[in-house]
Amino acid sequence: MTFASENIPAFLQLFRATETRIRQMPGCQHLELWQDANTPHIYCTYSHWESEEALNVYRKSALFGEVWPATKALFAAPAQAFSVHPVAP
Questions:
Q1: For 50, phi and psi rounded to 5 degrees?
Q2: SS3 call for 47
C-alpha cells in the first residue's frame, strides 16, 4: 500500500485501532504490518488465514467494510493484494 507521506500517521492510527479486531476474526492466525525498508511510505500487511474461505468471510465482514474504505482513502497509488503459498522442496 503506497501512502502520501502526510497520510501515514492517519493510516498507522487506523491500523493500531483495528489490528486486534482483525486478529480476532475467525480464521485469522497471524497479522503483521511491514514497512518497505527503502521506500518508507510503502506498507503491507502480512497475514495468515486458516483458509481462503476464512479470508473471504473477513473481506465480506462489517469490520473490513469499515477498515478498507478508510485505508483506501489514504492511498497515493492503487494497492496490490495477492495470496501466496510455500513452494514444495
A1: -65, -25
A2: strand
Query: CA-CA distance, 14 to 20, in Å (whole number)?
Result: 11
Tens digit of each residue's pLDDT (9 = 90 or more) over 18-72: 999 999 999 999 999 999 999 999 999 999 999 999 999 999 999 999 999 999 9
Cα 89 from Cα 80, distance rounded (Å): 27
Question: Looking at residue 14, what is its pLDDT?
Answer: 98
Give the length of the chain. 89
Per-residue cell: 41: 511510505
Give this prediction's pTM: 0.89
Residue that the C-alpha cell 502526510 belongs to: 6
Question: In sequence order, which residues have a C-beta less than 8 Å from that of residue 48 and are 6 or more positions away?
Answer: 28, 29, 30, 31
From the CA atom positions of the chain, what is the Rg in Å? 14
The Cα–Cα gap between 79 and 89 comes to: 31
